[in-house]
Specification:
Shape: globular
Distance between the termini: 21 Å
Number of domains: 1
CATH superfamily: Response regulator
CATH topology: Rossmann fold
Helix content: 40-55%
Strand content: 5-15%
CATH architecture: 3-Layer(aba) Sandwich
Order of helices and strands: EHEHHEHEHH
Number of strands: 4
Structural class: alpha/beta
Oligomer: single chain
Largest sheet: 4 strands, parallel
């Protein structure tokens, strides 16, 4: 079982979008029973809130299913629970590091690293642009999925 945790500031826009996109990708490949995928927040601002309406609207447009959920805060214990911990920007990574401490297993990365670009995914909470965020999230999730499958198959 591969365990993935997507992380952003409030756990209502980017990380939830990534969670549902990745769940859809693995389901379409018939591998949903081989993955555990969740998302978390680095801040308490939105704890208990459901997925942002703009994220839900974009997922609907793209035909990607989602479920009702509540924003949850990342904990130090999450480090031991997940194989991949993926932040959406540099600030997320700094807060993830402050929550977990050391990263001896090198589990923490920015999602766009898996798209071959070390850069942030802009927060649509501020930009209002869920289309660009979706494109980046999709590219990052596809790259992550491809990387995981390559590792499983020992392909370089």
């Amino acid at each position: 079982m591969t365990k993935i945790c997507f992380v952003c500031h409030g756990n209502i826009c980017r990380s939830t979008m990534a969670e549902f996109v990745m769940k859809d990708l693995v389901k379409k490949e018939g591998l949903e029973n081989q993955f555990y995928i969740q998302s978390r927040a680095t801040h308490r601002d939105e704890l208990g809130a459901d997925t942002h309406w703009g994220t839900r609207e974009k997922l609907d447009q793209e035909g990607i299913p989602y479920s009702k959920r509540k924003a949850t805060l990342m904990t130090k214990e999450d480090y031991g629970q997940y194989d991949y911990i993926l932040g959406m920007d540099e600030e997320n990574i700094r807060y993830i590091d402050s929550i977990i401490g050391d990263d001896p297993e090198h589990k923490v990365h920015m999602l766009m690293d898996y798209a071959g670009e070390h850069r942030r995914i802009n927060d649509p909470w501020y930009t209002g642009n869920f289309d660009d965020t979706f494109r980046d999230v999709m590219r990052g999730c596809k790259g992550l999925f491809k990387n995981i499958i390559k590792k499983r198959n020992n392909i370089k």
